[in-house]
């Protein structure tokens, strides 16, 4: 038996794993004791990883060969790679010639490795010439990206996981790490046990397992996070808890913000947020006066039409109290996916360029053209996720290349997404798993290698780059994602009479190109190599001569003048207001033991022990008022669509709230879409992240035939 060190492919904690195998089959997995994210521990999902790679799963659930549908709706038939690549290149060239490069969209994933991201980014921007490349990370962390940029000057979480142990007060907002980031939650539990007087504040409309650990749970009305942060800041200013020297020396814009929050008295805030006024004063005191206060936040802030405002309002609190740039303090955005951070670093998104460059700046495009040795690049930001599918539904995007993600389940407002996929002339799906909802729409299915079979790097929430290593070969003819993009790019270049623009021979070649794009930037990794990662283990960027656990400790932020910016954004309610016909505020989220659309985690029967079936959860008082009973089938209806689910009574859901897990799609609940049949495509104007956490719905007894 052999062992190979790699990284868990699920969440952004980025735990190190040791894969046990015989060179052909993965037989076991355990935590890597030397990995600084998890020190040998794994959660339920991670410790069952080997069961997602059994011979039965590989035989029945993986794509093994390139496949093609002669017509939509037909059974796909196998074809060789050479023919598939040639046909795809020819069809993309024909669409490009007839309708221009902008008629092609590429939609990728935070599950891809940094090297895959780099290959797809170059394929889109340098080879095809389309600006329309975006990632499903748009759905999970783009508000955090813009929040950091607007306040601290760069998309860089300033903290480390060790700050969880060093903090005296932890404020968790819009996150349930007990389920979504379990190893970090274990670290938090241990830290609290070792630190008398530790304070934990949890801000969440639901009483989650995380909230149960809290000293103070602020169970606010969904969508009122900005109002709460303004109220907390008002209390801080009123009590004189501001860090005046820090504000004067290291920030700009405080007076404007002070004027904005003047009216947000704790009394008014309590009314808007549905909280006790005393709890707001208490939270403000603990946060401002503790020696070190850390905030952890995730989708509850990000997935909102006010996502950026929610992020900046929380960061304002850190800046006003000086709770930043010191051990145990700072605003720490948790990433959902294993390599959302790597996608941000390599700029594989419509609103980013490699090395944290800005597609709105001509000099940044010129930099990239020089680095990639091409005469020109598209020169403007592209369509973000929701916009890309809307453009396809309108017939403007005519070809979609989708890699390692399942938009026919995960994107909001499925009616638009399905229309887009049906209307496209060409849909290419590059996937490891054969049975996703999106696969039904694909003209070409390209088999991709996945965890345990791939080589490259990922970056976790604390900016730590870890190696991903192959233990066994991929099944059948499956290939590395970067290789698939690379080979078709070469054929497109040849078809355009050009020398190849993507000419790597290995994943490491692509990583070296990525590294070159970071030189001199805030995320500079010019001093790092794969040899260093192999010898010294995972490292945090920036890495010029050594890794960097904490940013801005010299008091200089990443803005032109070195001062952080207070951002004064008014509180706005969610995009869709509930009313008499649609009275419930629906939120979506994760279950503890499942991952995304369950294409991987759904293959392990034991992972259904925690939650075996989909349901809509309602507060028992709401159900009683409507004479609805536990287990009864109900119709959940919004302005976009409806779905039928069993009802679950759950006192942890707030009154007038409703909750449906994101994981179950049509493969699991029959001939209907999952929760995104009813969600909507409204998004934050700054980050373009859709509002998956708030839709107005009706819940009624299902009319059964
Ligand atoms: Fe994997 Fe996240 Fe669990 Fe760690 S906490 S084992 S990265 S799913």
TrEMBL record:
Domain 4Fe-4S Mo/W bis-MGD-type intervals: 1-57
Name the chain's protein.
Assimilatory nitrate reductase (NADH) alpha subunit apoprotein
Q: Which organism is it from?
A: Roseateles saccharophilus (Pseudomonas saccharophila)
Q: Which UniProt keywords apply?
A: 4Fe-4S, Iron, Iron-sulfur, Metal-binding, Molybdenum, Nitrate assimilation, Oxidoreductase
| Superkingdom to which the source organism belongs | Bacteria
GO MF: 4 iron, 4 sulfur cluster binding; metal ion binding; molybdopterin cofactor binding; oxidoreductase activity
| One GO CC term on file | membrane
Instruction: Name the cofactor(s) required for activity, per the record.
Output: Mo-bis(molybdopterin guanine dinucleotide); [4Fe-4S] cluster
Q: Biological process GO terms, please?
A: cellular respiration; nitrate assimilation
Would you identify the family this protein belongs to, as annotated? Belongs to the prokaryotic molybdopterin-containing oxidoreductase family. NasA/NapA/NarB subfamily.
């Amino acid at each position: 038996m052999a062992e190979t060190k790699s990284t868990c492919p699920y969440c952004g904690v980025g735990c190190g794993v040791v894969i046990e195998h015989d060179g052909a089959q993965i037989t076991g997995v355990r935590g890597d004791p030397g990995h600084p994210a998890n020190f040998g521990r794994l959660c339920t999902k991670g410790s069952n990883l080997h069961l997602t790679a059994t011979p039965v799963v590989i035989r029945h659930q993986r794509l093994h060969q390139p496949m093609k549908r002669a017509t939509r709706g037909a059974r796909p038939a196998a074809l060789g790679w050479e023919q598939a690549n040639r046909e795809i290149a020819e069809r993309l060239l024909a669409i490009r010639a007839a309708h221009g490069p902008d008629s092609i969209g590429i939609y990728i994933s935070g599950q891809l490795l940094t090297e895959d991201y780099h290959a797809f980014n170059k394929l889109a921007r340098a080879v095809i010439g389309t600006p329309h490349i975006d990632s499903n990370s748009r759905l999970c962390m783009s508000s955090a990206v813009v929040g950091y940029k607007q306040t601290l000057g760069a998309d860089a979480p300033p903290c480390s996981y060790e700050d969880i142990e060093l903090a005296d007060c932890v404020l968790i907002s819009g996150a349930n790490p007990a389920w979504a980031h379990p190893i970090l939650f274990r670290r938090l539990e241990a830290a609290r046990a070792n630190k008398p007087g530790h304070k934990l504040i949890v801000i969440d409309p639901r009483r989650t397992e995380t909230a149960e650990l809290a000293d103070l749970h602020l169970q606010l009305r969904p969508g009122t996070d900005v109002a709460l942060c303004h109220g907390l800041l008002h209390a801080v200013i009123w009590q004189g808890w501001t860090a005046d020297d820090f504000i004067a020396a290291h920030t700009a814009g405080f007076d404007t913000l002070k004027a904005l929050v003047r009216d947000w008295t704790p009394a008014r805030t309590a009314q808007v947020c549905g909280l006790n006024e005393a709890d707001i004063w208490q939270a403000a005191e603990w946060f401002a006066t503790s020696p070190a206060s850390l905030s952890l936040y995730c989708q509850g802030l990000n997935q909102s039409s006010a996502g950026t405002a929610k992020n900046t309002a929380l960061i304002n609190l850190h800046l006003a109290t000086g709770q930043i740039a010191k051990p145990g303090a700072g605003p720490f955005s948790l990433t959902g996916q294993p390599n959302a951070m790597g996608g941000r670093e390599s700029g594989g998104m419509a609103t980013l360029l490699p090395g944290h460059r800005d597609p709105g700046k001509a000099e940044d495009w010129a930099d990239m053209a020089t680095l990639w040795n091409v005469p020109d690049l598209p020169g403007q930001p592209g369509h973000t996720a929701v916009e890309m599918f809307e453009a396809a539904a309108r017939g403007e995007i005519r070809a979609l290349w989708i890699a390692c993600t399942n938009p026919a389940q995960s994107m909001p407002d499925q009616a638009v997404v399905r229309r887009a996929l049906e209307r496209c002339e060409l849909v290419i799906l590059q996937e490891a798993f054969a049975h996703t909802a999106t696969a039904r729409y694909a003209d070409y299915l390209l088999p991709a290698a996945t965890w345990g079979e791939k080589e490259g790097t990922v970056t976790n929430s604390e900016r730590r780059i870890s190696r991903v290593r192959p233990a066994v070969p991929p099944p059948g003819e499956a290939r590395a994602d970067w290789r698939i993009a690379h080979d078709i790019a070469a054929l497109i270049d040849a078809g355009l009479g050009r020398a190849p623009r993507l000419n790597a021979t290995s994943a490491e070649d692509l990583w070296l190109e990525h590294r070159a794009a970071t030189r001199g930037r805030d995320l500079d990794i010019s001093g790092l190599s794969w040899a260093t990662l192999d010898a010294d283990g995972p490292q945090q960027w920036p890495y010029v001569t050594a890794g960097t656990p904490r940013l801005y400790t010299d008091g200089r932020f990443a803005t032109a003048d070195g001062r952080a910016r207070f951002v004064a954004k008014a509180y706005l309610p969610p995009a869709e207001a509930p009313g008499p016909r649609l009275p419930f505020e629906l939120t979506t989220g994760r279950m503890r033991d499942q991952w995304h659309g369950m294409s991987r985690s759904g293959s392990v029967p034991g992972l259904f022990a925690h939650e075996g079936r989909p349901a809509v959860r309602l507060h028992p008082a709401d159900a009683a008022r409507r004479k609805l009973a536990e287990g009864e089938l109900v119709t959940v209806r919004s302005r976009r669509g409806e779905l039928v689910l069993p009802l679950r009574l759950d006192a942890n859901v707030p009154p007038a709230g409703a909750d449906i897990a994101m994981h179950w799609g049509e493969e699991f609940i029959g001939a209907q879409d999952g929760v995104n049949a009813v969600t909507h495509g409204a998004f934050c104007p700054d980050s373009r992240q859709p509002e998956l956490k708030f839709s107005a719905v009706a819940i009624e007894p299902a009319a059964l035939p």
